[in-house]
Specification:
By secondary structure, the chain is α+β, with helices and mostly antiparallel strands. It has one domain. Strands 1-2 form a two-stranded antiparallel ribbon. It has a two-stranded antiparallel sheet with strand order 3-4.
């Protein structure tokens, strides 16, 4: 997959969902055939530290209740994508 991505001239950018209003920092890799995704790069936000996982008695791990909903993209991310990546093509 990586070779295909590099050969097709893809662009990769890392950003932090916490910079767009998510409760946890959570970094994501954006892969695209458009360099516009680099406009979504944000530095890692300084959010209060929380425990992300709890070790269970049986030795496994479970996500902390504070992580509930962290799999969802914050609405500010969607807005930033439209404003930074989509609209400039039409202005």
């Amino acid at each position: 997959m990586r070779n295909l991505f590099e050969k097709t001239g893809g662009t990769r950018a890392t950003t932090w969902l916490g910079a767009f209003g998510a409760a946890s920092p959570k970094n994501i890799q954006l892969l695209s055939n458009s360099s516009a995704v680099t406009r979504l790069k944000e530095p890692k936000p300084r959010l209060p530290l929380t425990t992300l996982a709890v070790r269970e008695i049986c030795g496994g791990f479970s996500a902390n209740i504070g992580m509930a909903g962290s799999e969802n993209y914050p609405s500010n991310f969607s807005e930033a994508y439209i404003v930074r990546c989509v609209l400039p093509k039409y202005l």
